[in-house]
Amino acid sequence: MTWSPKRAGFESSTSGNTSYGKRRTYRSGLLPDFWQYKLGILAELLEEGIDYREEADGSIVANLPGRGWMKKTPEMQEQDYRDYIATLKGVAQNA
């Protein structure tokens, strides 16, 4: 559950759903750093029972169901991380 002014007692029970015609958006105050993001990917692969290996250059190579062996280079991982953070912040992507 994310923090909210209403749940924290700063607003009455009927306020806070809209502000000047805009819906309230909830965002977590904490953003993961790149290493937390990468560890999350590795944990998910492990949890799903997907075979993977890390290469010396930092690449992750995983045997994805229905797709075979796929490789994510460190550059690809960094771009995925930036896209993920932009999504969390609610920033539109131009790519």
Euclidean distance between termini CA atoms:
31 Å
Order of strands across the main sheet: 3-4-5
Number of helical segments with 4 or more residues? 2
The helix/strand series, from N terminus to C terminus, equals: EEHEEEH
Average pLDDT confidence is 79
Describe the structure in brief.
Helices cover 32% and strands 18% of the residues. It has 95 residues and is of the alpha+beta class. A hairpin with a 5-residue loop joins strand 3 (52-54) and strand 4 (60-64).
Can you give a write-up of this model?
The chain has a domain of 60 residues. The chain starts with 17 loop residues before the first strand and ends in a 6-residue tail after the last helix. The chain contains 2 helices and 5 strands; from the N terminus they run ββαβββα. The longest helix is centred in the C-terminal third of the chain and has 16 residues. By secondary structure, it is α+β, with helices and mostly antiparallel strands. The strands form 2 sheets. The chain has a 3-stranded antiparallel β-sheet with strand order 3-4-5. The relative contact order is 0.12. Strand 3 and strand 4 form a beta hairpin.
